[in-house]
């Protein structure tokens, strides 16, 4: 499946319930809750025709400060290492290295899910760009 360079976004939220109610009441969006990498996500649901209003999720942020920005995820499939090297080479900072996306089942077990981005297992990474903006990379497994 071919997709654009921008594949996913995270909207930080101090309170997922309050944030999802805001987006439901203002825009009519619906969500389902997932624990991905031990972080609660309210993922945007597709509409009745299967179209996603937004390819992303509201993400619970424990150390929330007003003004946190959205995290935009750029496609890194097949070029994760190259992009990682260039991030640091050109003045960026890696915050979270390439990490397999996992889903928690209970306190002692979990699994590797297919992602909502391209229905394949995948990896993510967080970095700061040269201006201090938090961004992400996503790549299919």
Q: Could you explain the architecture of this structure?
A:
Helix content is 16%, strand content 42%. The chain is of the alpha+beta class and 141 residues long. The chain has an eight-stranded mixed β-sheet with strand order 2-3-4-1-5-10-9-6, covered by helices on one side. Strands 7-8 form a two-stranded antiparallel sheet. The longest helix is centred in the N-terminal third of the chain and has 12 residues, at 16-27.
Distance separating the two termini: 14 Å
Order of helices and strands: EHEEEEHEEEEE
Strand segment tally: 10
How many helical stretches? 2
Any descriptors?
2 helices, 10 strands, 141 residues, alpha+beta, single chain, globular, two-stranded antiparallel sheet, eight-stranded mixed beta sheet
Q: What's a concise summary of this model?
A:
This protein has 2 helices and 10 strands; from the N terminus they run βαββββαβββββ.
Topology at a glance:
Blueprint: E1 6-13, H1 16-27, E2 31-36, E3 39-44, E4 56-60, E5 71-75, H2 80-89, E6 93-100, E7 103-106, E8 109-111, E9 122-128, E10 134-140
Parallel strand pairs: 1-4, 5-10
Antiparallel strand pairs: 1-5, 2-3, 3-4, 6-9, 7-8, 9-10
